[in-house]
Amino acid sequence: DELNTWFWHEAEYNQEINCDFLTDGTDNYNEIGTALSALGLSSKPKSAGGDNMCYSIEHFDENAKDKDSDFQDDINQVYWVDGHDYSAHHPFTHPKPHADSRQATGAYCRFAINHHGGAIFPQNLESPKVAARKNWDFEPDDDTMPRLRLASDIMFAYWLHNNPNPKDLRYYFVNTVTNEATLRLMAKVVRKKGLQDLPPWSGVQLGMWEAEAEYMLGSSPIGATLAYLLIQHKAELGLKQVTSVNIFHGNWEHEDREDRPQPEIHVLFQIEDYVPPERTDADDDAVYARSIRVRGDAKNIVRQHVFRLIDGKVRANL
Fold first, then answer.
1. β-strands 287-293, 119-126 pairing
2. What is the pLDDT of residues 302-317, one digit of tens each?
3. How far apart are CA 226 and CA 198, in angstroms?
4. Edge-to-edge strand order for the sheet containing 313-317?
5. CA distances from 80 to 10, 40, 98, 139, 303 (A)
6. Which spans in 107-250 are helix H?
7. Torsion from C-alpha of 186, 188, 190, 192, nearest 10 degrees
8. Which residues constitute the domain of residue 189?
9. 25: closest CA among 288, 302, 251, 316?
10. What is the full DSSP assignment across 47-83?
11. Is residue 305 one of the residues assigned to a domain?
12. Which helix (H) or strand (E) holds 314?
């Protein structure tokens, strides 16, 4: 398949640590059990009788070995495409590198899937371009990157796999936000709401008529990944609307953990089906988000947010 062709590998990923969302003070991460319980979603991994399955998809082979049978660093792994062999297990058996050879980047896409509850949980994403920049010590060219490179496409492939109801995507939980620009925006939202600190679930909820919600979806890295997913795969998902954004911290409150002195921050984008009004051909690549707001004695105001891919970037029309 395309993932294998472009040298993506499914790596070991601890289900109990990464896919158990219970709030019980154990070693598991992403303690959002309160939120999941409120939404009627499972907090347990499939290995413990729940609905959640975690994956780590990496742009290198963690089991690759060199000619001396030693494990091989990701930056030394080379793969071939376009009809040529590609494998890092025994690179010495390959012909000399040619125009079709590429180097593993060390990128990764780690996430959880809950088909039954209609949820995707992005957890830790690093793109091939960012990973290559760190691992190669020079600025990589686009033509050296795998053609399958977007986290949205990788997560969607697993969302679609063995899923009898792919159109039932309802929740997009971003676990443990670390992007500095996004965190600054969240701090601004908390202050704007008159709060000193970000509350636990349900945290701060933003309607899609609010500028901060539009930014979270269309401009922040965590929201842009969702926007790409909805736009690029609407044939399988159907036309969707993002109805709200919840920003909240997890339930971890134990200050005795030096590695986790404070609870992590999470974001939930809630998704619903949307039947748009009559559209023109120019709207074919759009994802719609509609919200209704009542302000004072004014009539209900319907605002439509249209997101399009223009020159490879998500653009929003309000």
1. unpaired
2. 344 455 555 555 544 4
3. 23
4. 287-293, 301-310, 313-317
5. 18, 45, 9, 21, 48
6. 128-136, 151-160, 180-192, 211-218, 221-232, 234-237
7. -140
8. 2-59+105-285
9. 251
10. GGTSSBEEEEEESS-TT-B-TTSPBPPGGG-EEE-TT
11. no
12. strand 313-317
Whether 262 contacts 286, CB under 8 Å: no
C-alpha separations of 255 from 30, 98, 260, 263 in Å: 16, 54, 8, 9
231 in any annotated domain = yes
Helix (H) / strand (E) containing 2: helix 2-5
Q: Is residue 200 a contact partner of residue 123, using CB atoms and an 8 Å limit? A: no
d(CA 235, CA 92): 43
β partners of residue 307:
287, 316
What are the tens digits of pLDDT across the range 158-191? 999 999 999 999 999 999 999 888 999 899 999 9
Q: What is the pLDDT of residues 243-291, one digit of tens each?
A: 999 999 987 655 555 555 567 899 999 999 987 676 566 555 554 444 3
Q: How many domains does the chain have?
A: 1
